[in-house]
Fold:
Amino acid sequence: MLIKLTGGKVYDPANGVDGEVRDIFIEDGRIVSPDPNAKVDHEYAVHGKVVMAGGIDPHSHIGGGKMTIARMMLPEDHMHDTVARTDLTRAGVGHAVPSTMLTGYRYAEMGYTAAFEPAMLPANARQAHMEMADTSIIDKGAFVMLGSDDFFLRQLAGKKDFSAIKDYIAWTMHAAQAIAVKVVNPGGISAFKFNQRKLDLNEKHVYYGVTPRDIIVTLARGLKELGVVHPLHIHGCNLGVPGGYETTLETIKGAEGLPIHLTHIQFHSYGTEGDLKFSSAAAPVAEAINTNPNVSCDVGQVMFGQTCTASGDSMRQFITSRSATPKKWVVMDIECDAGCGVVPFKYRDKSFVNALQWAIGLELFLLINDPWRLFLTTDHPNGGPFTWYPHLIRLLMDKAFRNDMMQKINPDALKYSTLASLDREYSLYEIAIMTRAGPARSLGLKDRGQLGVGAWADITVYDDNPDREAMFTTPELLFKNGELIVRNGKIIKVVNGATHVARPSYDPGIEKSLKPYFDDYHTVRMDNFRLSDDEIINGGRGSLIIQPTGARVA
Amino acid sequence: MKSEMSRNGANHHENVACPFCGILCDDLDIGPSGDGLKVLKNGCVKSVAGFERPLSEPKPQIDGKDVSLDEAITAAARLIKESRLPVFGGLGTDVDGIRAAIALAEKGGGVVDHALSEGQYRNFRVLQNSGWVLTTLTEARNRADLFIVAGSDIHKLHPRFFERIVCNEASMFSDNPPKRTVVFLGEGLDQSAVAGKRIGEVLTIPAKADRIAEILDAMRAMNKGGAVSGDTIAGLPRAAVEDLLERCKAASYGVIVWAPPSLTFPNADLTVQAISEFVKEINLTSRFAGLSLGGNDGATSAGAVCSWQSGFPLRVSYADGTPDYDPVRFSATKLLDAKEADLLLWLSSFSPDIPPPDTDIPTIFLAAPGFKSARTPKVYIPVGTPGVDHAGTMVRVDNVVSLPLKKLRQSNLPSAADVLEKIEAAL
Structure:
């Protein structure tokens, strides 16, 4: 069946298309360039509408044990947003930590076609994938966490041959069915189990004697040499610490030019000026990102209201637990593998600290020049639920709206931020980069995040409403692999999305060291630790897309 | 039949995960033996009973009379359709079984709850009220130098827990790991499995189960520097409690273990809370963690899947189409006792020995063969056991690890998920 979208204004930055009026043709799920005489089976007149690829969220906590702990913990947050089943869609709950099916529906209703879970523990990978399998419609994928797992730390401390370390990284990506690797508070989650309460970039882990800097460089270099497209995804040391921006700058320097991705940098851009010793250091962080082309980032924008923070960073979350709202929280040490911390949180616009966090995130958006290296996230749900994205886009595109919002927040906070002096307004083209083309390129998603001939037809059509929040809240049409899924913001068809993975090569000889490690120390056998393809596919519930990796070096 | 092949044949399985308690040991060897299966390595009383249960393949029944599977499914669908408030209880199944049960409950407008929810809710209430600091099996196995077993007969629930997590000789953090102290806080707890090179002192503090919370609260107060008066605390000499606190503070990684199903006295959630608040307190200066066990009969899987799909850990009603959560009102037992429910679908695929609630409303039983019930169910559909008759996945009791279950023998028993999906399709 040949489908035609006629007369839309196309924003397709991957192909340099900036608002040109173009027709788009879809056949067999992909964008095609048909014979001029071919019969169009179905035409959608989208004259004057904005056409983009489906949105891609490169950092959103949608699946895994810590999300389900958060779900169990917060019935009061769900009860205000319960959704009935329909003949088409399943029941569920929304708000801060939505149920799985509803997560998929709400992403689709917002024009998104993919979201990536950034913190999948190897030990919890099976559950993370089961939750993602139950996340309707959208494609998904996950970044597997390394760097506080004892096998890696033993390799590093034992000065193992670098190629064995690379084998282990690649093995873990296969075993956990991951597309990328994340490090969270490098070494710090493990150090917390040894009762260390902080671990600076150059501070030694009390047991292994290695530093976060060693861990970052090893993993970043390993991934580069393995040909994994997405660089090491770094949740740095000292999250949320006033003065933590210096760690961020040191981390950039310490990467020695290797490609790195700094995630939720808003939480890592705090200075220590002023009476409360808390100020914005967005400017120096943005400057460092602007001048280091090996670095990409996402913001982790804070939005006001109730949410729940859920992180692998047990060390920092234990400290954050003092601010839990409501007063309940979970911290876990996990399987000689990782950890987690789940702390509900309410960001208040009248709070000096929270207002400043909000301002710092916006400053970073407005001060970082290259949208190809900057992605739009709230670190869902840590800075706020992903359903805030349309509001956030309006804050970035509409200076007058931003000014109005600044009037509502704690006025002292603005004294320690440059936000009020920033006039930049994002264009639709730049928004399309940050929410589509950039994440697709960074994650190595072949034929996604773009509208060129041959690309998969994940397409969103918006009304060109000057109220950008309204525009991005309710897309008129959403196609997933060429099928119409959403019309006027409502789901009309439900499909199962795919799971994107990357499979760098490794020497299977690594299992000679892994098998006795599992046998002697673990409570799971190596063979059972590994997730098979069949478990993802599970009789058609899911499917796999293996994204290309570059050639392995050594 | 495949199951009769030689030990060296295709039917000798290694690294088998065992679904018959919440720990999900996955190091079993299982092979064929006569008509059935035999646990060849790393068995325990529960796994032997579960895996070696002979295969029988009875027909589905309506009112005690054999019928075809299709007839039974049609009858079950009709009962659900006609029901005002069906309860989907038991839920002893794997992840796909729970998924199918929730989908059916949604469409049928019913309530979901697990057979062992009463125990799980001793934990869920604490999670929803104040939270905790927890650890997992591998972490405890390698790291703990002090184990406190609080009021729970762990050995009875999990026959290999002590062998695998407490008495293991190897630790990844030392070639010569320090000996462990094990404290049994409670009366009549089976200590027989605590032995071996790794075990140092084994202490018994014979507290009454329902007074354990007092001990934990007193230790928390003492640690904060508060005044705790009296020569006895919770019926124990004060010195015993002070000594325990000192051991907790001195431990490099203490672990306090409880199993909510064992805490069978009223308001036992407050004991779990006292344990959890004490653990939080100790963590201000040194490391300590809770380790909650239980989770038998797929309870952990049911709680997890229900939470990620509905937002709530069981006790959810879909009567009006939305997930309506009430941990008191939507207890299956309560709904049956109060005669608010007019149909019970009971699912129990791991063991024929878990009795369903005794109720005079119509019942649909999806159960392992050999299932016993005081009354004849309206519809009975025998189902296979996950990890024996069909493959599957389960969530381990620590809510972190999930394990794949294997199909170990040829059987004509359908999986619960298959049956539930067919009933849903027939609605």
User: Anything to note?
Assistant: Residues 28 and 43 of chain B are 7 Å apart (CA to CA). The two ends of chain B are 36 Å apart (CA to CA).
